[in-house]
Amino acid sequence: MSVTAEPSAAAAAAPAPGTHIGPAPFDSEPEAQGERDACSYDKITVEMAREGRAGRRVRVYADGIYDLFHQGHARQLMQCKGVFPKSQVYLLVGCCNDKLTRERKGETVMSEDERYEAIRHCRYVDEVVRDAPWTVKDEFLAKHKIDFVAHDELPYTTGSGVDVYKDLKEKGMFVATQRTEGVSTSDIVARIVRNYDSFVRRNLARGYSRKDLNVSFLRGQRLKIQNKYDEVKDKTKRFLESKKHDWEESSKELLGSFLRRFGGTDWNLDTLWNSNRLRLYLGSPPSSPRGSPSPSESGSSGSDEEAGTSNGSSRRKRRARSDEEEEDEAAGQSRTKKTKA
Q: Of 49, 62, 81, 162, which sits with the fewest C-beta atoms within 10 Å of its C-beta?
């Protein structure tokens, strides 16, 4: 029989008033030994622990590799600490050493000592068991007076085909926790490998040598050149952005000075723009039909209509004068012919 830990039971992990705040002791240290010796280790069932009838601190054990200790690990330990909200839980955390981990699972990023230290500084942990076994046996349970073992409920086989927690589940000593989706040590390692060049360049820029990063001479030089190129590119971009406004103002001032020197006294950019706006508009290609014009557009169209009417009237007057001149010329020729006759 197993029970699922409630993620919302984090309040159970809060230290009691007056409790010493510091790293959790290792199982071989006097503080952990004293806690273990004081435990009567009488049988506690899941129902007793859930109902708060244990009569003592419930000793819950969780184990793992805990490489690159992350929020998924911390959340698992939080669940273990709060698995029985009505009881006081004493959380022991076991961590496998480097030799056993390499044999069973593969290479780690952090050494065993680094992993031990990461675990014992987690606020939910009361005791750290070094050199933890891969499979929890009865002798180990009795030595550390463990009441329940916590892990996520999925079978944990690591290629053997046998769930290492099978016997504990059958004994009713297993507590199921929930995995944190989207985060794992393997995911973090994959992220670093995927962005390998970026992280190598980052560390080279921070003073690490290519030998520290196990990078060849040619590759190291290429990455340094890329770093320098990006640095110059960023500086140039920032410089151009900072000078853009200055250049615009200088250009406008220079053009205005030119117009004042070689043009009229009333020549300036604003005057030229306002006086030639209509001319520029009439010279532009016709636009596609639109909806109702805005008030400003309506004013412009009215001015355009007036200008068109005025131009049409002038053309009609010129044609009338041309017709009159042609008639006068024809009449003069007729008189000349009659005189000759």
A: 162
